[in-house]
Amino acid sequence: MIYELEMEVRDYECDIQGIVNNANYLHYMEHTRHKFIQSIGLSFADLHEQGIDVVVARMNQQYKTPLRPEDVFLSRVYMSKEGLRYIFHQDIVRKSDNKLCLRATVEAVCVINGRLSDSEVLQQAFAEYLK
Q: How far apart are CA 51 and CA 114, in angstroms?
C-alpha cells in the first residue's frame, strides 16, 4: 500500500437493501486516487493545463462484503505499470473488523495533447511508487 484514506458511508449512498450502491464504490476509489495524486504534489488541473490528461481506460471490481450506513472504511491504493498503463490496485476495507469489501484494478493511461503517450512528468512523480 502506498496511500490510505479513511472515509465513512453516508446514508444517501445506500440503496433500498441498506447497503452501499455499487456506483458509490467508484466514487470512493476515484476520490482516493485524486487525494493520492495531490499528496505527491500533482494536480489534475495543472497537468491538464500542460496538455497532460490521465484517463481511466479500464476497471475491474470484485465486491466482497457490503458496506452499510455509518461504516468507517479504509480506501487503499498501490500502483504498478505495464507499458503505457498505470495500474492502480485498490482495496476498500471496513475498519471495524478489517473485512475486505472491494478489490479493484483501475487502468489509467496518459493522453498528451490528444495522443496516447507516456509522460515524463508522471514517470518522475510515480517513480518511487513503482519500484
A: 8
Name 124's bridge partners: none
Residue 98, pLDDT > 80, answer yes
CA distances from 115 to 25, 43, 64, 109, 118 (A): 29, 20, 37, 10, 10
> For residue 13, what pLDDT band results from cuts at 50, 70 and 90?
very high
Residue 75 contacts by C-beta under 8 Å, 6 or more apart in sequence? Answer: 4, 5, 6, 7, 28, 29, 31, 32, 90, 91, 92
Neighbours of 73 (CB within 10 A): 22
Give the mean pLDDT of 107-127: 96
Q: Which of 31, 11, 9 is nearest to 90 (CA)?
A: 31
